[in-house]
Design goal:
Helices cover 40% and strands 26% of the residues. It has helices at 3-10, 12-16, 21-40, 80-86, 107-134, 205-215, 217-220, 250-255, 260-268, 283-290, 314-321, 326-335, 347-351, 365-373, 379-383, 387-393, 398-413, and strands at 46-51, 56-66, 77-79, 95-100, 140-148, 152-156, 162-166, 181-192, 195-201, 224-232, 236-243, 273-278, 298-302, 307-313, 338-344. The radius of gyration is 37 Å and the shape is elongated. It starts with a helix and ends with a helix. One of its GO terms (biological process) is DNA-templated transcription termination.
């Protein structure tokens, strides 16, 4: 088999792998030089001439003519009689160049060449893919669901690259079927052996930030800045925004008329509740805004301990804490302060108030916990609400709430 035929048979890889012919030829030369080293001990006296346009390649072996019987290195020297078989007028001391056909390397060597070529091309592809996606870390990417497994969703992009979306990087309400288009950010690229593993995330704060950049032109143009993003994926998020231009209302621009601009982001994140907050360097004011929708009466800050006592009227406590404690947790993360809620109320009532935990022999612990989630942890704080209101705001049945109310009322009527 001639060199060109072998080259063409190897070049079939070019079509399967997105690799240009020049790069393929460079890989081929490297592979063939390794084969020459194995057969002859060195490739230093070989010239490899590649024509990428024709897909042709020539290998020439260069040796010095020595007198018969004086050959010490068969790879770099040739006897006079052997040289004259090639050209009858060769003399001692002259250089001889002889073409080597690939088939001369032997069938086993050619099979090894083929395997080595496959390995080198895969290595080239992996390196390029790793570099490509390393540059995309932190950017939004879209791919199609290829396979859904219990702990991971496998996605395929338009170029056939495999992207991994682990369960812990999915929003709790996410549900995917084969063929669905999925958006997330490229969070990381890890090398598993020689193969890069591309990790996507939909739970990262960066994903929410990038969605804002895509959907809000003023953010994309740099007129509005995102100062900080915190979120409990699928539940609630808080985004602090600011603007250098006093004429621009950053919160209004992000939310849009009747929530028109933010609606698409909320839908993408499984109806995650998003609070957009006007950033300020005034820590008291920032904490107040972060605890929205609750109305804060006053704040006492300990800068050294990064703690803040937040004073609220009794009816505002549950709003500040939020369902499942999400609001106060995110407000703390956004501001960087540990927030302690202090109730303001009737002193006489507070003095004879009783912690709900004191009723643990009559009220089950999980029921007490349900009230605590909405900021109600004393008897009087519960009694201030109607049964209907408590049923609406907790996961408790009406009958359970009524039983609790009866128990608590009897404590003060006694």
């Amino acid at each position: 088999m001639e060199n060109i035929a072998l080259i063409e048979s190897f070049s079939e890889f070019k079509d399967d792998k997105l690799i240009d012919r020049v790069t393929l030829m460079a890989i081929l030369e490297d592979v063939f030089r390794n084969a020459l080293k194995k057969k002859y001990g060195s490739d230093e006296n070989f010239d490899i001439i590649i024509n990428p346009d024709k897909g042709d390649m020539e290998i020439w072996r260069n040796r010095v003519v020595v007198a018969d019987g004086e050959v010490e290195d068969e790879n770099s020297e040739i006897s006079l009689s052997e040289a004259r078989k090639i050209e009858p007028d060769f003399e001692v001391g002259e250089d001889v160049s002889e073409e080597v056909k690939l088939i001369d390397l032997g069938r086993r060597a050619i099979l090894a060449l083929r395997q080595n070529l496959i390995s080198k091309i895969h290595e080239h592809d992996s390196t390029n893919l790793y570099k490509q996606f390393k540059d995309l870390i932190g950017e939004i990417y879209t791919a199609e669901v290829h396979h859904v497994r219990p702990r991971v969703v496998i996605l395929i992009d338009d170029d056939g690259n495999e992207i991994v979306l682990p369960k812990e990087k999915q929003i709790p309400s996410d549900f995917f079927r084969k063929g669905d288009n999925v958006r997330g950010i490229i969070e990381n690229v890890e090398l598993k052996g020689n193969k890069p593993q591309i990790i996507m995330s939909r739970t990262s704060e960066k994903f929410l930030e990038k969605l804002f950049e895509q959907e809000i032109p003023e953010i994309f143009d740099g007129l509005i800045m995102i100062k900080k993003v915190v979120r409990i994926p699928g539940e609630k998020a808080k985004v602090a925004v600011d603007s250098y231009d006093d004429r621009i209302d950053p919160v209004g621009a992000c939310v849009g008329m009747k929530g028109s601009r933010i609606h698409g982001i909320v839908r993408e994140l499984g109806n995650e509740n998003i609070d957009v907050i006007n950033y300020t360097s005034n820590n008291q004011l920032f904490i107040t805004r972060a605890l929205s929708p609750a109305k804060v009466s006053s704040i006492k800050i300990d800068e050294e301990k990064k703690r803040a006592e937040v004073f609220l009227k009794l009816e505002e406590v549950s709003k500040a804490i939020g369902r499942g404690g999400h609001n106060i947790k995110l407000a703390g993360l956004l501001t960087g302060y540990e927030l302690d809620v202090i109730r303001e109320g009737n002193v006489a009532e507070e003095e004879d108030d009783v912690e709900l935990t004191e009723f643990s022999d009559e009220i089950e612990a999980w029921v007490i916990e349900e009230f605590a989630k909405i900021g109600l942890d004393t008897a009087r704080s519960v009694l201030k609400h109607s049964v209907e209101d408590l049923v609406r705001r907790t996961d408790l049945e009406e009958e359970t709430v009524q039983d609790v109310m009866n128990i608590l009322k009897s404590e003060f009527e006694g």
